Amino acid sequence: MNEPMDPAEKKRKTIIGAALIVTLIAVVLVEDEAEITVDQAQPVTTQKSTRSSPRDTNRQEIKNEYLDVAQLGQRTFDPQAGELFAATSWAPKRPPVSAQQQAIMAQQQRAKAKIKAAPPAPTPPPLQFKYIGKAIEGNRTWVFLTQENENYIARIGENIDEQYRLDAINNESVTVTYLPLNAKQVLPINDKQAGNFR
After folding, report:
1. Cα 87 vs. chain centroid, distance in angstroms?
2. Which of 47, 147, 173, 189 has the smallest C-beta neighbourhood within 10 Å, fewest atoms?
C-alpha cells in the first residue's frame, strides 16, 4: 500500500527532479559548445579533401603546413643571455689596447713594484753636537764640541767619538762626516769669536 505523499515531500521531489533535468541539459549544451569552439578555432584550409572524413584530413594538413621545422630560421643566442649573475655596466667600452701599450704598461708596473720594494736609503742621525768654540795657532785650528755632557777637542782630519770625522772649519759652520754612511753633515756656528793660543 502506498501512503499518500505529503505535499511538502512531493514539492521537494519535483524540485530535485527539475534540477536534475536542468543539469543534464546544461551538460549536453556545454559539450556541443566545446565541439563548436574547437571547430571554429581550427584554421580554414584552401585545399579541399576528397576523403570521407574531412575533420581528420584538415587536422593532418594543418600539422603539415604549420609545423614545418625546415622553414624556421636558426636562432642565434648571445653567450651572456643565459647568465643570471652577469654584471651590467652602462659605462662605455674601453678601446682595445695595442701590444706596444701593453708593454709600456707592464714596464711601468714593474718600475712601480721596484720603487715599492726598494727600502729607503739610510740617512745619518741628526747632529747632537753643540759648538762651544775654537782655538787657532798658526795654521792649525781646534774645535771644541760637546754632546750629552761629553766634551771633544778635534782638528781637521781627526775622528770624534769614533763615528764622525772633522772635515772643515770656517766662521759659519763646522763640517763633519758621519763615517758609517760616509755622509757629510754641517753644524752651524753662532759664535764667531775664536780664541788664539800664545
Report:
1. 11
2. 47
- The radius of gyration computed from the CA coordinates of the chain, to the nearest angstrom, equals 57
Dmax over CA atoms of the chain, in Å, equals: 173
Return the H-helix or E-strand segment holding 26. Answer: helix 7-41
Q: With b meaning 16 or more CB within 10 Å and e meaning fewer, what string describes 25-60? A: eeeeeeeeeeeeeeeeeeeeeeeeeeeeeeeebbee
> DSSP assignment of 114-154, as one string?
HHHHSPPPP-PPPP--EEEEEEEETTEEEEEEEETTEEEEE
In tens, the pLDDT along 119-171 reads 777 888 998 899 988 888 888 888 999 988 899 999 989 999 889 999 998 88
Q: Per DSSP, what are the bridge partners of residue 160?
A: 164
Which DSSP symbol is given to 71? Answer: G
Can you count the helices (H) and strands (E) in the chain?
A: 3, 8
Element (H, E) at 47: none
Show the cell assigned to 101.
701599450
Confidence of residue 49 (pLDDT cuts 50, 70, 90): very low
User: How does pLDDT run across 12-29, given as a tens digit for each residue?
Assistant: 899 999 999 989 898 888
> Identity (one letter) of the amino acid at 84?
L
Closest CA to 173 of 185, 157, 161: 185
